Fold these 2 entries.
Entry 1:
Amino acid sequence: MTTIAEATGLSKHFGAVRAVDDVTFALEEDRIHGLLGRNGAGKSTLMQLLTGQEFATSGSVRVFGASPAENASVLRNVCFIKESQRYPDDWKPKHVFRSTPWFFEHWDAEFAEQLIDEFRLPLGRPIKKLSRGQLSSIGVIVGLASRAPLTFFDEPYLGLDAVARQLFYDRLLADYAEHPRTVVLSTHLIDEVSNLLEHVFVIDQGRLLVDSSAEDLRSSATTVVGKANTVDEFVGGREVLHRDALGGLASVTVAGLDDAERRAAAAAGLELAPVSLQQLVVRITGTAQKEFEVSA
Amino acid sequence: MTAIALTQSPTRTPGALQRVVNVVKLHFANPYTVLINPWIILIGIFLVNLAIWAIIMSQVTDPADRADVTEGFSYSGSSLFIFVYMMIVAIQAMNQTFSFALGMSVTRRDYYLGSALTFVLLSAVFAVGMAVLAAIEEATSGWGVGGRMFTSIYFGDGPWFERLAFVFLAMLFFFFVGAVAATVFVRWKALGLTVLLGLLGLITLAFVALVTFTRSWGSVGEWFATTGFLGSALWSLVISAVAGVAGFFILRRATPRG
Amino acid sequence: MDDSRPIFLQLAEQIENEILSGALPEESQVPSTNEFAAFHRINPATAGKGVNLLVDDGILYKKRGIGMFVTAGARERLLAKRREGFRTEYVGPLLQEARKLGITTDQLTDMIRNEDTQ
């Protein structure tokens, strides 16, 4: 495994707000990383630091072995697609795609054209008149067709409907398989992407809470359901991530169980239910489930 | 693990100059903002003037009177408007493309140098364009109606190359004052721009007060007289250069926000 | 691909099922890792892990530059493995549950026979 980027003790403060707070992690080459967290958790700021768009308050960022800030030799291999990307007001999408090949040396014009078709992006309509979803699709297309060795997608799907989002995920996966590269996908629609991710970061209030392979994370928790006293007996001194009770029934989410423990639970008449990545993040960040669902 | 990592084909690293040129191309990707709109405005002003000249001249028949009127036209400041408009073009161009350029992984350094080069190019294009129009104006005795816009008195009364140089220098001045205003706006938003304008106002006021209270208006006038028309214009290069350098350092720490 | 077990295990098991059912005959080519990934909408690295599990078990083998194939005799070996698994995973719990409910082994065998003839 080769480290593509790393942050060490990285912090970014805006006045009293610690947008990113003493974060240390590494991005490995040719992996799809998920950067998960609530709105305002610090995901965007973290990506801006990694792409040299923001300057760190303290700590260090290394991308391709050097600081990304004002470093053309680093940035030429980086593509950062952000939800809030501004385009010149008097532009049309065609102007965007006219200029992207100048800045991304791996740009694939044919692939871009295919995506423009698939996302039904009107190239000649003024940017100001595009819908939120069409605006997002510009970013998605640039991010995919640029084939940058390190690509960041910061909530790239705002306003895209379920069909278009699935199209994005499918094209990302297929193109990544053909042209492996390092991807960071920041999202709060975790269920939709959980199977795409190889590695997961969870950030909350600027702090990194989880840095784990997606597979490990998926098996790191199980929900045990059954009669309250049986459940409690089984759970014993384990760390409880979440607990619900309904009458005499209890539903408790605990850290991962091994095969023997699973058999023991079954023998005790308890039901085991998987915990989705999304549920897990909700538990970890103590958030209402609602925040991780598509809002209309 | 999937061992299918294709090796990235080695591609040419764009050199520093190429990266700067790419930013120039970015400014021209949609040529309306920096090139077409200013010309439309310039031509628009010209056409309005042409109509006014024609109307006025239709009422003046005596040749001596006509010469006087043409002389009067040369004091019209219509073409000065295009310079102020250039300042707005500079502010717009930078404010509109800065976030986008950073989104395209351009460094602030390359972005600023590319923008500066764009402004120098535009100054040259407009200076040459206006010199051509001035030549036509002279050749046609004021577009056939004795009008004067591109040979206005404000561009000096020297030969065509002096006028060209003056227009070029004036364009540079307004572009780079616009550029520094744009960087202030990009970095500190409206508040920064307000403070900047306030400061400039104060400096101007202080200068005027200084000259007035020391009763030095005479020496100021003398300075302009001895430095000459083009000489004074050349001094604007100092301000343009200071603005250009200041803009660079202001932008180096700017971050694209919302 | 959505129960609680690791995705790569689920993928490996699914390929095994297809070999058992004959959908993937021995010596036939199996889809590539990327095709599996795209089809199941999972990370290619995860798909690769599942496929490599079967390669390590000798169920699949790689032909350099061509792709992956089902090993001769793979079906037989899988059957044997699954039969052993059937005993521990199904018969064991069945007997356990039967005992809990007071069903004797004889009653259980009768139930199975009746069920089978239906």
Entry 2:
Amino acid sequence: MMDSIIKIENLIFEYRKEEEEQPVKAINNISLEVEKGSFTAILGKNGSGKSTLAKNLNGLLLPTGGTVYVNGYNTADEEHIWDVRQSAGMVFQNPDNQLVSAIVEDDVAFGPENLGIEPAEIRRRVDKALEDVNMGPFKGKSPHLLSGGQKQRIAIAGVVAMKPRCIIFDEPTAMLDPKGRKEIMSIIKELHEEGITVVLITHFMDEAVNADRVIIMHQGEIFMDGTPAEVFGQGEKVKSVNLDVPMAVELARALRQRGIEVPEKIIGTEEMVEYLCQYK
Amino acid sequence: MLRDITLGQYFPGSSPVHKLDPRLKIIATLLFIIELFIVDNFIGFLIAAIALGAVIALSKVPLSYILRGLKPILLILAFTFALNMFMVDGRILWQWKFLKITQEGLELAVFMAIRLILLIMGSSMLTLCTRPIALTDGIERLLSPFKRFGLPAHDIAMMMTIALRFIPTLLEEADKIMKAQQARGADFETGNLMQRAKSLIPILVPLFVSAFRIAQDLAMAMEARCYRGGENRTRMNEMKFKKSDYVAVTLLAVFGAVIIIQSKVF
């Protein structure tokens, strides 16, 4: 029996475009459980329903059919909606549009203030959260003077300060440069190591390599689900929905065709480099 | 051009002025503005200027930074100056056809210009030395007695916080749109006033669209962070009157007294 933090049962989400009579099914009957402390990556093309799924995970969108439980609370239960959102924090794509305050530390304090926490405790949490994302020295600065990656780190700190059990990252690196992307990924990894459940929505394959579990979505349904090695091992199937496999996987496949038996478990760039350097 | 606006911008620092209670600073600024409007001679302005100068010196905000904030209002300043100079009747100093400059007009023009400059500098000191959150918290607290009459004090304060936060973001957005339009041959620099005003429309429309998009994103992010209005909300920085605040109250009282005395004497 899996100890799950998020439990989705037959989730259906439809929205209606104004002129069209027929509602569009963004999510079509998904059932899914996310284990406590795990790191799940959800991949998919634009329009695959991955962002809609993310917004269903903390009650920003409510299911048309089926149920979503977060930390035991039903997201459709209005009484517990704030418990749901406190349990499952969310970091969005655009770093600019999710910061509320013109001062970094005030922004980080925004969430805890909403929860009605004691001022002294808020102060402690804000300092700790900024420390966690290596933004301590910037606490008195104004976010618009920071880089995209730094802003996104502030956004993460703002969620961390609410002490969620789980954080959902909705394409957090999509608008960042490579350096910012690296910074954010290493922070996500650290948070996961500290015991926070991570759900990472992304379309960068290389980011999914770090996860314990990869889910590929296609047309509102779960297309593939497994460990990164399992999923990326089926390169052709991944490509059939117009997604790429990580560079190292592609290279491994090419090497195998030339008769070099690269182990199946090698999917990350670093592991690949390691393997090739030791290859005789 | 768009980056010169200092009104509404915060200048980070840790001076005694920065540390004062925001409620006190708001009231002081209001008193300062009222003072500027009741003063009817140059000595009153001199006193106000000295007081303002002392505050600026104490705040350690560079004077050049504050003066830059005057740039956007230069046009208004020049306009009122010219209007006063030419329109007021009195002893004629200089005349050319229908244009004339009178002694009284010139005095009034200088008078008004000083008033405007002090007004802008004084009010920008409030935002320069007060963290936006503290400012809106202060406003919320000052307005809270009116909650009884149905005034949504918290919501007003939150709207102002967000407005202040997004001034730079929207300026950047406007800059980006302008550059994109220029790259496709739009011309904002030449033509008469009408033509230039018209050429701004293609900037304003996309700017509004992106403002709505930002608002939508932000609303979602705020909801995800459990924002549910002012009820049961706590604050990281509580407002308490400190020793320095009492000193400031005393100085403010002295300033007010001096102004009243001088208006009686002169």
